[in-house]
Amino acid sequence: MKRKLLLAGGGGVILLLLSIVVSLSIGSAHLPIPQIVAILGKHVPWIGSHIEVTWPKSSEQIMNQVRLPRVLLGVLVGAGLSLAGAAFQGVLRNPLADPYSLGVSSGASVGAAFIIYFGLQAAWLGQWSIPVAAFGTGLITLFLVVRLAQMDGKLKMETLILSGVVMQAFLGAIVSFLISMSKQVINEIVFWLMGSLAMHGWAYVGIILPYVIVGLIILLSYARSLNLLALGERQAAHLGVHVERTKVIVLVTATLITAAAVSVAGVIGFVGLIVPHLVRLVVGPDYRLIVPLSALGGGIYVLWADTVARTLLSPTEIPLGVVTAFLGAPFFAYLLYKEKRKVRGA
Q1: Which residue of 154, 211, 265, 340 is most buried, as measured by CB atoms within 10 A?
Q2: Looking at residue 127, what is its pLDDT?
Q3: Backbone phi, then psi, for 56, in 5-degree steps?
Q4: In contact, 102 and 251? CB cutoff 8 Å
Q5: Where do the coiled-coil regions begin and end (predicted)?
């Protein structure tokens, strides 16, 4: 396991670093890759003092103030959504589960749409208004879904999914109502619902970073329990797993990460479905591998999806959620077809 993690993880880190550098060079103003490496190296302690400044100041400003925060935010959003997807798939024991199964994204959307509709961005918390409102309503949604799903003090997986579907439909109707009633801000609401990393600076990176780091640590500590849950809840309990506590902690952690990602980037679908599933196909069913590699894979996936979104039809920018949906919907259909064949074969 350690050798596989070292090889796959090392390869993933190298691919992620290469993707970051290449993505930073792509845009309306082309920045040569050697120049990017030099600018990044200038900020590294002990190394930066040996690098001579040979690039124009405008290049450094473009990279440090515009592209670098967006690239890092894309990596963090992708890592967070993929981590949450791996957690949901592990707890629900369903390869078709993703961070949106519990209606958290719809809950976060209600908070964001409310702030945008009533024009409270400036009057309330400025640039923090939409993230805080989306995060809060996402957490409220989780609480309601868990309360609906509890039966005799236990969390039933079938009831949990049904509760998520019900909440998602209800909250989605609220968002649709706000969109239908809005006139001046309808484009802003719709664009947020389609997901985007545009005009997001370092403050947004600071919002999501702690949730991804803490979430990764918690999910790694429960990786063995997720492996045992794959055998069934009764078998896992016999092997020493506190099943109910594990389900609640993993679900809450995954939902917190999802709410944080949605609050800063809008609704970006299919990331939590595609990446953990592909990782599982490559390295097997061990969650000690799936959790960290999903974070790496999700970061790379969203980074390149955002690069395509901002450059394919430049100067017009495609919403990030549209790009991930174009890639994710056919993959979801393939997984659904595969599951149907498996059921028929059984």
Answers
A1: 265
A2: 65
A3: -70, 150
A4: yes
A5: none
- DSSP 8-class letter at 220: H
Q: CA nearest 297: which of 75, 39, 122?
A: 75
> Which residues form the domain of 162?
2-339
Tokens encoding 239: 């092997």
Q: Residue 330 has what pLDDT?
A: 82
Residue 22 domain-assigned (yes or no): yes
User: Is residue 157 pLDDT above 80, yes or no?
Assistant: no
- Our CA angle for 296, 299, 301, nearest 5°, is 105
Instruction: Tell me the C-alpha distance between 116 and 298, whole Å.
Output: 29
- Could you give the number of structural domains in the chain? 1
Nearest alpha carbon to residue 172 among 295, 52, 267, 276 = 267
Q: Residue 313 corresponds to which tokens in the numbers above?
A: 């039809």
Crossing angle of the two packed helices 104-117 and 243-265, in degrees rounded to 10: 30
Check which CATH number belongs to the domain holding 286 and give it: 1.10.3470.10
User: pLDDT at residue 265 above 70?
Assistant: yes
User: Is residue 73 a part of any domain in this protein?
Assistant: yes
Please say whether the dihedral angle defined by the alpha carbons of residues 279, 283, 284 and 288, taken in this order, is positive or negative: negative
Which SS3 state, helix, strand or coil, does residue 41 take?
A: helix
CB 275 within 8 A of CB 297: yes
Take residue 216 and report the two structure tokens written for it.
């990764």
pTM as predicted: 0.87
On whether residue 346 sits in a domain, the answer given is: no
Q: Token pair of 191, please?
A: 């664009």
Distance between start and end Cα atoms, the chain:
31
Residues 6+ apart with CB under 8 A from 162: 149
Say which residue, 340 or 91, is predicted with more confidence: 91
Q: What is the mean pLDDT of residues 274-286?
A: 89
Q: Could you give the C-alpha distances from 235 to 226, 230, 246, 289, in angstroms and in order?
A: 12, 9, 14, 22
On whether residue 43 sits in a domain, the answer given is: yes
Tokens of 143: 């609480």
